[in-house]
Specification:
This protein is an alpha+beta fold and 621 residues long. It is built from 17 helices and 19 strands.
Length: 621
């Protein structure tokens, strides 16, 4: 109690510091809890100006508070008079208590911000835990570093030399300026936010959290080491020289590590190459062969050959031909220790087998593109991406008339779909591979009513919202299967919903497209742009609206039917529109007069019009 009383008196003696803490904390909470955010992790963006300010605030407060503590306890006088056996223990206890109070305040702020974001997005505990963790990594760790540095300066100032304390502060200040220059590229620094994705990038920022923590801990240890050097080395210039060398080494080593982790430029550059490859592609009617089977798969993102596929031939042939995604290049093909000759042109691979019975394909160690990245921290290999050999040829990527890149994924027929989530390395051996998806990164796996959901973490919401999404997908299926009789015996109508995958769209695609979903054999995948304005309701409600035109398009591959069916389904199932269908209509080739005429029809008339469209489409086929 006496210790708390002493601390309370100290706190009252630094009123200006307390006012500064209150003002900064309120501004921090206000900005990070902004109810008009587009993405629940948008507060990460504010680090570019709130972290530098926070570092200065907590450095100043920590220095002033600890200087007050050290000056208020005359250790030498207590030692001489033998009043207390271990007088330094009093200082350590007070410093520890203030640090605990500091941590409690940071935890409270993190809890308030996480709670506010959860309420804004109608989410639950999963999102709360995720936001709390992100806040601690992006804000609390730099503030702890600042607090410890302020403590170090006050100790040097009180017990050693004022001159050394000032020099240590100068070295630290220059170090912080250098770090922020490297981090935010201050030469092009803008106070206003012009581009969100470099800060809340859906593929990269959230997949290097461990590295982010380690780098901040290295900075903390380095500053403690520099303080130790200043304290122990009597010659000031020698201490400065050693500290500066240590700081320079740590700073540029960690910056080099961070630059290797920033894959966005590499992947976007590969997107650009892929774009021109598809743009200049000459289509041919070369026939694929089906006299082979996939009998082994090995995926090790960190290895020299990240993907290895074993093919077994049904009978001896001199040549086989298959199709794979253009972004994945084959390095070499081996059989019985010998390399086989092969030719890869775009998505078509031709292998001279020379009568062998099996072979192993070794993929090149490439990051791929932002469509389907393959790195140690990010793996996105959905089965519909054609990342392993196919016996049929399909155009996975398309470029529309406006020059926009799309992934024109065609729905595949699968007897069984296997989705592997979160594994470091994966291998499969069997007689015949059906449909295999491998996903690793900032994703959460959830089980809802015998349905597995794999959700990008910033899209997390309440369990009841996932239930509502599943119920709505069931209702959409019921209406479509009742409306279009030719669907009744298909997998779509007969299979239960086994998996729902909600992942962020590629950086290179348009924010809304009819290609943003696949549906096959009870497995639903939705590609969602995380920067669309979905802050007024959970992403599951957004997916409900998307599914009304994405699912019909995947079933019929017909723009008009999918859009007209969407309007019908939204009215029939009372789905509140957010304007996404209107955007799709504006991008489509549908005549505005025919669309306006259709929207004014009654539900019965809309139903008849849809049935007639489907019949006309079947007659043309």
């Amino acid at each position: 109690m006496r210790l708390l009383y002493v601390l309370l008196r100290m706190v009252l003696s630094i009123k200006i510091d307390m006012i500064l803490i209150c003002v900064f904390s309120c501004i921090l909470i206000f900005y990070c809890s902004n109810p008009h955010t587009i993405n629940p992790v948008e507060f990460i963006l504010y680090t570019k100006y709130l972290v530098p300010v926070g570092v200065c605030v907590w450095l100043f407060v920590s220095f002033r508070l600890h200087l007050l503590i050290t000056n208020s306890i005359p250790i030498n006088w207590i030692t001489i008079n033998e009043i207390v056996q271990k007088p330094k223990k009093i200082v350590v206890n007070q410093i520890s208590t203030t640090f605990i109070c500091f941590l409690i305040l940071q935890i409270l702020i993190a809890g308030i911000i996480a709670s506010a974001i959860v309420m804004t997005f109608s989410a639950g505990w999963n999102l709360f835990a995720f936001i709390f963790k992100l806040y601690c990594i992006y804000f609390v760790l730099p503030f702890i570093w600042s607090w410890i540095t302020g403590l170090s300066i006050s100790i040097i100032y009180a017990y050693h030399s004022h001159k050394k304390a000032i020099l240590f502060f100068d070295v630290f200040l220059l170090w912080v300026i250098t770090l922020f220059f490297l981090e935010y590229k201050l030469a092009s620094f803008n106070v206003f936010i012009e581009n969100r994705w470099p800060y809340i990038d859906p593929l990269f920022s959230l997949t290097f959290l461990k590295e982010n923590v380690l780098i901040k801990l290295v900075y903390l240890i380095c500053s403690i080491g520099a303080c130790f050097v200043f304290v122990k080395i009597r010659r000031t210039m020698v201490g400065i020289a050693i500290s500066v060398i240590l700081i320079i080494f740590v700073t540029f080593t960690t910056d080099s590590v961070q630059s290797k982790s920033q894959l966005d430029k590499i992947l976007l550059a590969n997107d650009y190459k892929l774009y021109h490859q598809i743009k200049n592609k000459t289509y041919s009617n070369i026939k694929m062969t089906d006299n082979w089977r996939i009998t082994g798969v090995q995926v090790e993102p960190g290895s020299r050959y990240p993907i290895q596929i074993k093919l077994t031939l049904d009978k001896k042939e001199n040549l086989i031909r298959f199709s794979i995604n253009e972004q994945f290049k084959i390095d070499h093909i081996k059989s019985e220790g010998k390399n086989l000759s092969f030719k890869q042109q775009g998505s078509i691979v031709e292998v001279e087998t020379n009568g062998v019975q099996s072979m192993v394909l070794y993929y090149k160690n490439t990051f791929g593109s932002s469509f389907y990245p393959l790195t140690s921290n990010i793996v996105l290999l959905p089965f519909e991406a054609n990342w392993y050999p196919q016996s049929t040829h399909s155009n996975l990527y398309t470029i529309d008339s406006s020059g926009t890149f799309h992934t024109n994924v065609q729905t595949k027929k699968c007897k069984r779909i296997e989705i592997i989530e979160g594994e470091e390395n994966y291998s499969w051996h069997g007689d015949h591979l059906d449909c295999l998806s491998i996903i690793k990164g900032p994703y959460k796996q959830i089980e809802i009513q015998n349905t597995k959901l794999i959700v990008y973490e910033p899209f997390l919401t309440k369990t009841k919202n996932y239930r509502e999404l599943k119920d709505q997908l069931v209702s959409i299926r019921s209406e479509l299967c009742k409306l279009f009789t030719n669907l009744k015996n298909t997998n779509y109508c007969t299979n239960e919903i086994e998996t729902i995958v909600i992942i962020p769209k590629s950086l290179s695609t348009t924010n809304l497209s009819l290609y943003d979903s696949t549906v096959t054999n009870g497995s639903y995948t939705f590609y969602v742009d995380p920067f669309l304005d979905v802050n007024d309701k959970p992403v599951t409600a957004y997916v409900q609206e998307l599914s009304t035109f994405l699912i019909p398009y995947r079933l019929f591959e017909n723009e008009q039917i999918s859009i007209f069916a969407s309007q019908y389904l939204m009215e029939k199932l009372h789905i509140q529109p957010s304007g996404y269908l209107r955007t799709i209509v504006e991008k489509s080739s549908i005549n505005s007069e025919s669309w306006n005429h259709y929207t004014k029809l009654t539900m019965e008339e809309k139903e008849k019009a849809l049935i007639q469209m489907a019949q006309e489409m079947r007659r043309k086929d």
